[in-house]
Amino acid sequence: MTVDRSLSDRLSLNQITTDQWNLEQAVDGCLRHEIPWISVWRHKIEEIGLKQAKKLIQDAGLSVSSICRGGMFPAATAKERGERLDDNKRAIEEAAELGTDTLVLVCGPSAGRDIATARLQVAEGIDHLVPYAKDYGVKLAIEPLHPMFAADRSVINTLNQASNIAERYQPSEVGVIVDVYHVWWDPQLYQEMDRAKGRILGFHVSDWKVPMPDMFKGRAMMGDGVIEINRMRQAVEQAGYHGPIEVEIINQSLWDRPGDEVLAEVKQRFLEHV
Amino acid sequence: MTVDRSLSDRLSLNQITTDQWNLEQAVDGCLRHEIPWISVWRHKIEEIGLKQAKKLIQDAGLSVSSICRGGMFPAATAKERGERLDDNKRAIEEAAELGTDTLVLVCGPSAGRDIATARLQVAEGIDHLVPYAKDYGVKLAIEPLHPMFAADRSVINTLNQASNIAERYQPSEVGVIVDVYHVWWDPQLYQEMDRAKGRILGFHVSDWKVPMPDMFKGRAMMGDGVIEINRMRQAVEQAGYHGPIEVEIINQSLWDRPGDEVLAEVKQRFLEHV
Question: Per the CB < 8 Å rule, is A228 touching B119?
Fold first, then answer.
């Protein structure tokens, strides 16, 4: 029971898992289900404004594990890339205001066919942001996305790439997110988790089920798929990460169910399979 | 025109591109469209028998670039793994009989959650097959599949993994296939193509289009997506590969069209974008 208690204290609801709920509903849901952490998405903040979002979370006594998301650095023109940077600065400010030190970066796809240039633009974008984030006490957390998202969401697709960028900075400035769904297949996974020691800023769980109903909205509940989630948790802990664990399940069928039913299942599966 | 001529001489129809056709129809189609090579799938051979398949291809004067496919090595029990090896031996015999020296290996998914063990079982399976293939003058061509197929089709997902296995043998025994759809996203792509010098046994083309209609049957026609196909062709040529180039497009919408219309488009796009 001690182990379970310490694990459930680390459970964080990544808000996209209950996208049918607005922020107020999600905060209330966390209270009802005794989930101590929440990861907030910016489109949900926008609906009610930053001040109101902050008040809701503070009044509920929830801790914010991260804010989703910054990134989307590559673009065809310098002007557009500048606009993306401005948007990232707003995200940093929002993170600081909501009391989290972690801004998740989904780095963005290439504007054209040249993926190598897009990867350089990601590194440049991060380089511009680091001093700004530092001023706000916010760490930039590079989340590698599964290679199947290389064309439309992120050209950063492995922990190796993420660490190659992160290591140019202090661990207090730039780190990486380990999301089991994105990296479970990687032949270098355990070496790269070990390499990222001291730089892991988040651990996200879901599962990979065959057949997958949808590339984007097809993530499965923990335990329903093939991912060795518990083995990966042990590895991130060996690499020094003992912070909140976000349940981030992007799946239309969860959004079609009552949020309370989803949260009850999330909590049970979390304790059984993470 | 010299360049185009030498390119069109390398065009191979991977038979899955016209899955609406049986082997006889595909062979006739290649003749009508002056496509000199064909890659034959085993389920199409089975429909008419090996002897008849051989006669059709020989009478037409087509060359066989490869046979698809062996592999599928991992299984839960030693008995099942033995049966998979037996099936691979039949595939080797069929390749030799049809006059190709290239057996494409789609290595197979894990029987359970343990992907590391499945990867060892792939290496063991190949190790068992090498002497048998050598006796028949057939090379084993390891095709890394996109990481999105790690759970259901192959635990070999990068050129790095494929070369790690291939390099245990002579280049005349084991090599790799470069399929643009599977490897275009890989940050190590050009290094790994260079490393595979002398071991590239095939080059497959299609494209990656956003949004993808289906993970398995969603490959696009060359030119419709984001892949730098021509840059990759130059890289495989620098790595010593000047053999046939297979057009392998697994897409339901192509199968719903008349095969002749598909072949005409294949040929045009091949010359424009490969």
Answer: no
